[in-house]
């Protein structure tokens, strides 16, 4: 059995802790303002990017990198809140198109200042622009490419 170098284990632990701390920071800011979870923001943004034509749930799943059941549950909760509509596709008996409602657009817009503020507080204010560029470069080396929108 191959054992990872101690620096590899330390890097993994640091990445995991940093990720959790950043997510917790964003989530607590959203909660303090009575706004939905960050996963809702990501879904609403991707649906908004799709425009008036909407997006199929399987396409959204690929963009969000969630398992199918996670995407379905998320869409159920977001639809129940009135932030999206789901319409059947006439040519596909099982298919749906998801579209953003005006309330969904307003919610996503209300979430952004909190999310952006957390990014500034938790990342941008703590490391220099050159350190941020280096961090991005290094993370891109170990991060799988996302599907094109």
UniProtKB/TrEMBL annotation:
GO terms for molecular function: DNA-binding transcription factor activity. InterPro entries: HTH_MarR-typ, MarR/SlyA-like, WH-like_DNA-bd_sf, WH_DNA-bd_sf. Residues 8-144 form the HTH marR-type domain. SUPFAM superfamilies: Winged helix' DNA-binding domain (SSF46785). Transmembrane segments: none annotated. Pfam families: MarR_2. It comes from the Bacteria. GO terms for biological process: response to stress. PANTHER family: TRANSCRIPTIONAL REGULATOR, MARR FAMILY, TRANSCRIPTIONAL REGULATORY PROTEIN. This is MarR family transcriptional regulator. It comes from Tritonibacter litoralis. The lineage of its organism: Bacteria, Pseudomonadati, Pseudomonadota, Alphaproteobacteria, Rhodobacterales.
């Amino acid at each position: 059995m191959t054992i990872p170098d101690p620096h590899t284990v330390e890097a993994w632990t640091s990445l995991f802790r940093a990720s959790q701390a950043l997510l917790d920071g964003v989530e607590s800011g959203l909660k303090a303002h009575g706004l939905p979870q960050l996963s809702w923001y990501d879904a609403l943004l991707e649906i908004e990017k799709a425009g008036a034509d909407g997006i199929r749930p399987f396409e959204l799943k690929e963009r969000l990198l969630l398992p199918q059941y996670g995407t379905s549950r998320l869409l159920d909760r977001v639809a129940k809140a009135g932030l999206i509509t789901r319409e059947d596709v006439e040519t596909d008996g099982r298919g749906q198109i998801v579209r953003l409602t005006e309330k969904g657009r307003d919610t996503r817009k209300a979430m952004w200042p909190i999310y952006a503020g957390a990014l500034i507080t938790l990342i941008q204010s703590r490391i220099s622009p050159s350190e941020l560029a280096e961090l991005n470069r290094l993370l891109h080396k170990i991060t799988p490419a996302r599907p094109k929108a």
